Amino acid sequence: MLILTGCTSTTGDGEDGSLQTINEGQLTVCSESNYPPFESEKDGEMVGLDMDLAAEIAKDNDLEVHNVTLPFETMVSGAALDTQQCDIVTSALTITDERKSVMDFSEPYFDNQLGLVVKKGSDIESVQDAIDSEARVGVMQQTTGDSKAKELGLNSVQFEDVLMFQDLESGGVDAVLDDLVPIAQHSEEYPDFVVVEEVPADDQFGVAVRKGDTAMLEAVNSTIERVKEDGTMDEITEKWIPVNDQ
Length: 246
What we know:
The chain is an alpha/beta fold. The chain folds into two domains: 138 residues, D-Maltodextrin-Binding Protein, domain 2; 92 residues, Periplasmic binding protein-like II (D-Maltodextrin-Binding Protein, domain 2, 3-Layer(aba) Sandwich). The protein is built from ten helices and 15 strands. The strands form four sheets. It has a five-stranded mixed sheet. It has a five-stranded mixed sheet with strand order 12-11-13-10-14, sandwiched between helices. A three-stranded antiparallel sheet has the order 4-5-6. Helix 1 packs across helix 9. It is elongated and about 60 Å long. One of its GO terms (cellular component) is membrane.
């Protein structure tokens, strides 16, 4: 975990309501390190849909992006923002009422869906099959897949990261319930994965800022509004999530 030191300014609104960041001239962005296509490390740099959106936010505010990768729990609990490890969190973060109690969210920038994935030849052909057979279903902890699995009564097995897909390949779990987009990405690595059922989810991603940081929230929302209106968000989405993958 990276703790930033030598700060030259403080996150939050300035006395005149102006935008303040942890490090002067930088937008410090927290994310996971391995959740493609939203964020992943390539050649020593963080890339992905969320990273491109963060770059647009930084550009609109004459800032340079500084990426910090952290465990998902540190970000979703609000701790990363509260301890000034980052100015914003862009990490495929679902907007929920519970999370709103510890952080503020931007307007949604991505609508998410879930899918139940198994290996070809599996006897599991639906969520109901997984329930009836008490199949071991891998989920990433504290995600929409995790909460939906509990809601459906699945025999869920929690993972801290996307190693659940490796467990599905090796037979450690019988199925995985996760976002359709990363499932599509991992299916390129594991071509014998099959989505047997799409699962409805009221799930939208937002950018998180420290609770009460109205200047940062307004700056983020301004960029999201712009990229939606001028087509930049469509370009970013098509870049990382090709139409034929959906």
